[in-house]
Design goal:
Number of strands: 8
Largest sheet: 2 strands, antiparallel
Structural class: mainly alpha
Shape: globular
Radius of gyration: 21 Å
Order of helices and strands: HHEHHHHHHHHHHHEEEEHHHEHEHHE
Mean pLDDT: 93
Helix content: 40-55%
Strand order of the largest sheet: 1-6
Number of helices: 19
Low-confidence stretches: none
Strand content: 5-15%
């Protein structure tokens, strides 16, 4: 295997995502960071507060995954009802494909959880706005995306969605997705439908099983070009991978820090559609918490991390800056540290409480934090 391919494969391993995050945490603890220091005592404070939140809100002590579907059900009941009607005539695999299509569409158009526009997007999808084969139920296919991006006047686009489509970054993500769907008809069919991937996944799962790492590997060729990083390996965009001088390695992955936030978020959003198709996803404990902007803001607000200089809060930072890369890595490693403390407090195992299950309670705790709120940060656009 060429050295570039070996590097890409290593950087897509979930264990490497976690390894590099902990590497940067260790560097910060040694005082090597120019931008952040830690507040070790706040890990215990936040962990105890999280344990209290989980006990109060989750009787079985297993918080639900913070995915697209609970947000829709909680905040957009009318959209959920329309989605349910639109797939009522489909079998389990058909409903699963529609769910997969909707999950990807929501991540690309509203990656920051744009709640007002999410309901409008779901209704637009349910009405067949992103497919050219409306007779087969709601779907996301390449010709439907092309028609939407071209501004076809025959499509009634809600104002909230029309506004989103004026964002150059969102348009670029959708253009890149359409091209990827068109270029792989063996996986996505002649009409380039994302949900068709579930047929390939089902075939493989029958013989190999289905794990979080395996699903991420299948999604990566399509979504790596969408991620928006400038890092290239062997001439190709490597995905949500960024440079940081404190990330050490003895091969070509040196100074490279992988996150794969979009990929990991989509894996989580696909858990329910896969179950609809009769497929069980194993290995959720392999995933890190998706290192989103919101999580970065939350760990600052909770006082888990403190800036070493005023520019962190005063300036707006691009995704590739050392400050943002470092903070995203700290988000992953500190979430791991918090969940370790939580498991001890709640007497749970790694399988009972994988790190991804604390995303919702952590966001809830940060929103209601009664201690003196920590610092803020502003991060410019990017698909995470």
């Amino acid at each position: 295997m060429p050295e570039e391919a070996v590097t890409v494969e290593r950087l897509h391993r979930l264990e490497t995502v976690r390894e590099r995050a902990w590497m940067l945490l260790a560097a910060v603890e040694r005082g090597e960071s120019e931008h952040f220091n830690l507040s070790p005592e706040s890990v215990s404070t936040v962990a105890l507060a999280l344990a209290s939140t989980i006990r109060e809100t989750t009787p079985d002590l297993r918080p639900p995954l913070a995915t697209l579907w609970p947000r829709l059900q909680r905040d957009h009941s009318a959209a959920v009802e329309q989605l349910a009607r639109s797939v009522a005539g489909l079998d389990g695999p058909g409903r699963a494909k529609a769910g997969a299509d909707m999950a990807l569409l929501a991540l690309l158009i509203a990656p920051d959880g744009d709640e007002p526009g999410l309901g409008a997007l779901a209704q637009f999808f349910a009405a067949g706005g992103t497919t050219t084969r409306q007779d087969a139920g709601p779907a996301l296919n390449a010709p439907g995306l092309r028609r939407l991006l071209a501004g076809d006047t025959a499509i009634a686009v809600p104002d909230e969605l029309r506004s989103s489509l004026q964002d150059p970054a969102i348009r670029q993500r959708l253009e890149t997705l359409a091209a990827g769907l068109e270029q792989d008809p063996e996986t996505f069919g002649a009409d380039g439908r994302f949900g068709a991937l579930l047929d390939r996944i089902a075939e493989a799962a029958r013989s190999e099983g289905l794990t979080a790492q395996g699903l991420l590997d299948r999604l990566a060729p399509l979504l790596d070009p969408v991620a928006g990083s400038t890092v290239r390996i062997g001439g190709s965009i490597a995905g949500d991978i960024w440079r940081h001088p404190l990330a050490w390695a003895d091969d070509r992955s040196r100074e490279l820090v992988p996150f794969h936030c979009l990929l990991q978020s989509l894996v989580l959003d696909l858990v329910e559609p896969l179950a609809e198709a009769g497929l069980k996803l194993d290995g959720l404990e392999e995933l890190t918490v998706p290192p989103t902007r919101r999580l970065a803001v939350d760990i600052l607000r909770l006082g888990l991390v403190n800036p070493r200089h005023a520019a962190v809060a005063r300036l707006r930072h691009p995704p590739g800056s050392d400050i943002v890369v470092e903070l995203r890595a700290l988000s992953i490693a500190l979430a791991d540290r918090l969940v370790d403390r939580l498991r001890q407090e709640l007497n749970l195992t790694v399988r009972d409480l994988p790190a991804v299950r604390i995303v919702g309670p952590l966001a809830q705790l940060a929103a209601n934090w009664r201690e003196t709120p920590g610092h803020a940060i502003a991060i410019t656009g990017g698909c995470f």
